[in-house]
Every structure is written in C-alpha cells, then in structure tokens.
C-alpha cells in the first residue's frame, strides 16, 4: 500500500445490536495506538477517547425498517467519512451476500478503498450465493483481514484465483477491559429482568450457553447432554434465536422434562444482563459444529469463566485442553458430558483454568 498515513473510517451498521460496539472501539484504539487515525460510524454513542458518530438509527426496528435505516446510515457514513478525509473504509463481513455487495459498491463508487474484516468466510445461518461472496471479498475489497489461520485457508480456497491482494491474519480483539473489575461493577441479578431459579443454592453447578442461537452452534447437542448430566447441573440459555424455531426449542425442553434445570432467555441480552449472567455461571459451554472465530469464547475467557468447547480448529487457537479450557470431540454428546462432569466436579480446576485463560488472552489477543 502506497499511503504512509492512514485515516481509517470504521463503518458498522450492526454495532450495539450484536455486541460489535466493543470490537469497533478496541479496533479504533489499536489503530490509533499504532500511529494512524480512526473514527467509527455506527449506531451507538461516543466512547471515551474515541470519535464515534451515531449515523445509523436501526435499533429497535423490524427487519425491513432496519434495512432501510441501515441503507440511509451507510449513505450518511460514506459522506461524512469523505468529509473527514478517510483514505480507507473498514467494513465487517459476516455473510458476503447481496447487502454486503451493495455497501461495498457504494464505497467504491465514492472513490474510497476498502479494508474488509472477514469474520465468517461463509454465513453460518443463511445461504448466500458464492458469486456474491467472491465479488465482495475477492473483487471489491482492497485488503482482506481474518482472525486465524483456519479462516485464511478457507477464504483462499473459496476465492481461488479471484483475489488480487494477500489475506492478512490479525488477532481478534480482547475483552479484558470489560471484566477487569467484574466483581465490583456487576449489578445485582435482582435488579435485572432475569429470574434464575435456584440461584445461590448450594451444590448447583450452572452452565451457560450465550449468544445468538443458530443450528451451527450445536445447542441441541447440549440439550441432549443435559439428559445424561447429574441433576445438580443446570443450564441457562441466553440469546436471540436466528435460524432456530423458538417454539420448537421450548417444546423440546418441556417434553424432555428439563424445565426445572434449563432456563431459556430467548431474546437480546443487554450488557448489564450479560455481565450478571457471566458472574452467575460456573462454566460456559460452546458445543459449536461450525465456526470461524468465536467472540463469545474470547469474551468468556477474558471474564475468567471456565470453558468447555468443541475441538474445532478455530476454538483450539484459544483453548488448550486442560490448560486454558476443556475440549470435547465435536458432535460427540458422550464426550461433551464427560468434559462437563470433569469440570463441574473440580472447583480447583475451574479456578486454574480461569486464571490461565485470562493470561492467554492477555498475551495473545492484545492489539
């Protein structure tokens, strides 16, 4: 790249709707710490030490109203970014579909270069045409960034000979600053709109499944495992359903006699609620069947929560078995049960894994 000074505008319509606000802020801070300038255009208020413009007004709206609002927000963001003097526009890619292509074309028509952070090489919840993906990532993006070697290899496989520039690997942002003072800053559960049965009851071990609920994330495996796990092990499911039917999920819990041990909170979880849930759980479980990078995993490790995760390659970047967490064979419910039982029965192991996980994040995920 010929420019020696970078003025990077991060444009993100998602922002506070899916926890991307923290990612954007950390990314902008990292850019500034490395001698360039950064500004964020999204749907949330200004963050300390950063310039953040709320150009998107798409929260609290239905799907179609949000799409229209996001399009208008993209037009505003590009116009303001040009006025600010941006020479790079940073865009996030999760699907690589038609909407992404539209946004990328808008930026290119405005005469600006694009840095694409490709979070999901292929969509984990909806189908998008390979042609759109190749155009968005392979043709319209000037620079592509992924978060691990697995994603890089998969991206190069999909793009084939269509990519014109290298694919760079950059560590995912950390979440340590959200939880450094976890014990003192987390609100009491009683002031939140969450009721957790048996909270504080001696002997209960609480598992947490956190994040958007998609078939690729394997919640069904965890629910199957609950049949085999001891009665003192309970589960909280916290997150909004995406490609999973909410009624079917609730029906499964009821028909399988799990209502006394499984608490579903099937909606968007606010940041204070997230902190309270993290504070109250003993183990976070990620039974994913498919993933490119898990922000929830890194968030849990940053918070010092012991993790049981499937042994997919992206998970193994962060989870070293019996050192920073426990891994189970992906798709194997019996092994999932074994690892949960091992960790739930050993409080000392949970403490050791928590400390080691935070140390690992501190060393490998700082920008």
Write the layout of secondary structure elements.
Layout: E1 7-11, H1 20-33, E2 37-42, E3 52-54, H2 63-84, E4 88-93, H3 98-109, E5 114-118, H4 130-140, E6 143-146, H5 149-159, E7 167-169, H6 176-179, H7 182-185, E8 205-210, H8 219-228, E9 233-238, H9 246-255, E10 262-265, H10 271-280, E11 283-286, H11 295-303, E12 307-310, H12 313-316, E13 326-328, H13 333-344, H14 347-364
Concise overview:
With 367 residues, the chain is of the alpha/beta class. The protein is built from 14 helices and 13 strands.
Query: What overall geometry do the principal axes of the alpha carbons give?
Result: globular
The strand order across the widest sheet is 3-2-1-4-5-6-7
SSE order, one letter for each helix or strand: EHEEHEHEHEHEHHEHEHEHEHEHEHH
How does the helix and strand content classify structurally? alpha/beta
- Cα end-to-end separation: 21 Å
Low-pLDDT sequence parts: 183-195
Number of domains: 2
What is the CATH superfamily of the largest domain? Glycogen Phosphorylase B
Proportion of residues in β-strands = 15-25%
The CATH class of the largest domain is Alpha Beta
How much helix is in the residues?
40-55%
CATH architectural name of the largest domain: 3-Layer(aba) Sandwich
- Strand elements, count: 13
At CATH level 3, the topology of the largest domain is Rossmann fold
Write down the overall mean pLDDT.
89
List the total number of helices. 14
Biggest beta sheet attributes: 7 strands, parallel
């Amino acid at each position: 790249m010929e420019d020696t000074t970078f003025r990077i505008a991060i444009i993100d319509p998602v922002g506070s709707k899916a926890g991307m606000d923290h990612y954007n802020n950390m990314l902008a801070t990292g850019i500034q710490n490395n001698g360039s300038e950064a500004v964020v255009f999204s749907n949330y208020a200004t963050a300390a030490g950063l310039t953040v413009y709320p150009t998107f007004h798409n929260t609290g709206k239905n799907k179609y109203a949000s799409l229209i609002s996001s399009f208008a927000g993209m037009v505003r963001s590009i116009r303001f970014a040009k006025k600010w003097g941006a020479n790079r526009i940073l865009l996030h890619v999760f699907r690589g579909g038609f909407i992404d292509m539209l946004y990328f074309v808008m930026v290119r028509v405005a005469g600006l270069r694009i840095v694409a952070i490709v979070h999901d090489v292929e969509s984990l919840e909806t189908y998008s045409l390979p042609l759109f993906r190749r155009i968005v990532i392979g043709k319209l993006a000037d620079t592509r960034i992924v978060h691990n070697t697995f994603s890089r290899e998969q991206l190069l496989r999909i793009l084939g000979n269509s990519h014109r520039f290298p694919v760079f690997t950059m560590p995912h942002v950390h979440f340590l600053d959200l939880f450094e003072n976890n014990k003192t800053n987390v609100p009491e559960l009683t002031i939140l709109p969450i009721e957790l049965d048996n909270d504080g009851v001696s002997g209960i071990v609480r598992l947490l499944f956190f994040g958007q609920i998609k078939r690729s994330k394997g919640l069904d495996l965890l629910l199957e495992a609950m049949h085999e796990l001891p009665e003192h092990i309970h589960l909280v499911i916290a997150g909004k359903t995406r490609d999973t039917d909410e009624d079917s999920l609730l029906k499964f819990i009821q028909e399988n006699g799990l209502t006394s041990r499984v608490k579903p909170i099937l909606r968007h979880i606010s940041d204070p609620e997230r902190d309270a849930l993290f504070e109250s759980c003993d183990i976070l479980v990620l039974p994913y069947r498919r993933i490119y990078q898990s922000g929830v995993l890194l968030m849990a490790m940053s918070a010092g929560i012991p993790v049981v995760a499937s042994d997919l390659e992206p998970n193994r970047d962060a989870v070293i078995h019996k050192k920073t967490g426990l891994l189970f064979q992906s798709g194997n419910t019996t092994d999932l049960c074994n690892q949960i039982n091992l960790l739930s029965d050993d409080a000392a192991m949970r403490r050791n894994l928590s400390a080691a996980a935070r140390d690992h994040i501190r060393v490998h995920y700082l920008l």
